[in-house]
Amino acid sequence: MKQPRIHPQALCETAHVGAGTRVWAFAHVLPGARIGADCNICDGVFVENDVVVGDRVTVKCGVQLWDGVTIEDDVFVGPNATFTNDPFPRSWVRPATFARTVVRAGASIGANSTILPGVEIGAGAMVGAGAVVTRPVPPNAIVVGNPARVSGYTAVARKPATPAESDGTPRPGRTELGVGGASLHELRLFRDPRGELSVGEFGRELPFTPRRFFLVSGVPGHEVRGEHAHRSCEQFLVCARGSCRVLLDDGHDRREVTLDRPSLGVHMPAMIWGTQYRYSPDAVLLVFASDHYDPDDYVGAYEEFRKLAAGRAARG
């Protein structure tokens, strides 16, 4: 088994350092810290006692990991990223407990970013350089700025090109998105001097007969909605006014579409993690649902969703 490599000029006081981990010069790791295997703890890093670092984590120079911080597997922490653990710090005043900050597996923290206490960075997320993270970051989200806001999502494919008529009007039809049975629908569109009319018939062009609908409007452009899946309920989304982006995730693949006209809709079957963001100021999102409201049908935690999705895939 590979042994950890501790630089002679590092001060590593913990016995809990995994195989193959390297701790470089001038790093200081306190006795209570736990560091996993194959990590790279670079020059000048400080790790306090109540800290857990998973496997294959890279912590670049100038980072301090304070009490209450947990870093899961395969995380990258960029140079001089700053973690905090006390929302109201005072000299010589120690809280009874420190806020818990968690960076989930596969996330990346950009150089010089600041992470406020008690925040969770979702699995696969990416925090841009210099961002100030004041609230939880959704899984796979890219956040930038001060305060950090969602600007996009990692590893998503964009919607396929839509066939058009000779006058440039999108041609009615259905396009499979390759994500858990989700599909993009160009509805029939009629134009005359009185205006435009778009239409779709449930049970014919559209995949189910709805039992419920709701409208989402007045969403600030920096806010994110959705961020859940349904165990059995299907949904059909149309942006009746303005535009918004829709991210669809089946636990393995992700695809993003932009709904920017009333004649374009997306069918989201059950067990698709759906996220809507980048609403235009005038956006009105119309959602048809196949079932009545049932709070038990919601899956609100991404890790739970991934486990459920993996179990369904294994059962075929």
From TrEMBL:
<dbReference type="InterPro" id="IPR011004">
    <property type="entry name" value="Trimer_LpxA-like_sf"/>
</dbReference>
<dbReference type="InterPro" id="IPR008894">
    <property type="entry name" value="QdtA_cupin_dom"/>
</dbReference>
<keyword id="KW-0677">Repeat</keyword>
<dbReference type="InterPro" id="IPR018357">
    <property type="entry name" value="Hexapep_transf_CS"/>
</dbReference>
<feature type="region of interest" description="Disordered">
    <location>
        <begin position="157"/>
        <end position="176"/>
    </location>
</feature>
<keyword id="KW-0413">Isomerase</keyword>
<keyword id="KW-0808">Transferase</keyword>
<dbReference type="Pfam" id="PF00132">
    <property type="entry name" value="Hexapep"/>
</dbReference>
<protein>
    <submittedName>
        <fullName>Isomerase</fullName>
    </submittedName>
</protein>
<feature type="domain" description="Sugar 3,4-ketoisomerase QdtA cupin">
    <location>
        <begin position="183"/>
        <end position="308"/>
    </location>
</feature>
<dbReference type="InterPro" id="IPR011051">
    <property type="entry name" value="RmlC_Cupin_sf"/>
</dbReference>
<dbReference type="GO" id="GO:0016740">
    <property type="term" value="F:transferase activity"/>
</dbReference>
<dbReference type="Pfam" id="PF05523">
    <property type="entry name" value="FdtA"/>
</dbReference>
<dbReference type="GO" id="GO:0016853">
    <property type="term" value="F:isomerase activity"/>
</dbReference>
<dbReference type="InterPro" id="IPR050179">
    <property type="entry name" value="Trans_hexapeptide_repeat"/>
</dbReference>
<dbReference type="InterPro" id="IPR014710">
    <property type="entry name" value="RmlC-like_jellyroll"/>
</dbReference>
<dbReference type="InterPro" id="IPR001451">
    <property type="entry name" value="Hexapep"/>
</dbReference>
